[in-house]
Amino acid sequence: MDFKQIQELIKLVNKSNLSELTIEEKDFKVTIKQKEEIIQQTLISGQFQQAPQQAFAPAPAPAALPAAGSAPPPAAKADDTSKYITIKSPMIGTFYRKPSPDKPLFVEVGSEVTPGKVVCIIEAMKLFNEIESEVKGKIVKVLVEDQSPVEYDQPLFLVDPS
User: Fold this and answer.
1) What is the enclosing helix (H) or strand (E) of 67?
2) Quick one: the chain helix, strand, coil %, rounded to 5?
3) 75 contact partners, CB below 8 Å, separation of at least 6
4) Largest Cα span, the chain
């Protein structure tokens, strides 16, 4: 089973109601598990499940009082990003924006992408996996720093499909 087949399996599990899929062959075994929404939020925050609920619940109220004037712009940004398509990481690994240190970036803000165009590389277990765009549009934001660790399903790029 090659990497593309595993990626397709991950996409199928994400789109289905399956919580877990295991495929076993002679010398090969793959298990794909769906993450619950709470767990995904926990991965983004980097803390345990109950800690963000307790730690972040009191924090916004004091922060909102001094920053009352700055509260509406983030809401406006959230509305703006709803029209964009997100390119997400299909695996855990290290995110690279270039094929090698002396080469140019795969894509920059403003770059046009089409399905099949390589947008980055994710290194996982010493394998460099090219991540291709599945949509047509223009890159409007790069959400991850070069050479940063990324989680499965973590947003990497925002693409304007218009």
Assistant:
1) none
2) 30, 30, 40
3) none
4) 62
Instruction: Report the alpha-carbon angle 132-6-126, nearest 5.
Output: 70
Tell me the pLDDT tens digit for each residue of 53-109.
443 444 444 444 444 444 445 544 555 667 899 999 999 999 999 999 899 999 999
Q: What is the mean pLDDT of residues 23-44?
A: 63
d(Cα 140, Cα 114) in Å, to the nearest integer? Answer: 14
pTM, entire model: 0.52
Give the separation between CA 97 and CA 60, rounded to whole angstroms.
Answer: 34
Hey, is 115 helix, strand or coil?
A: coil
105-156 residue pLDDT tens: 999 999 999 999 999 999 998 899 999 999 999 999 999 999 999 999 999 9
Query: Which residues, in sequence order, are CB contacts of 24 under 8 Å at separation 6+?
Result: 30
On whether the CB atoms of residues 93 and 120 are closer than 8 A, the answer is: no
Token duo for residue 149: 């660790």
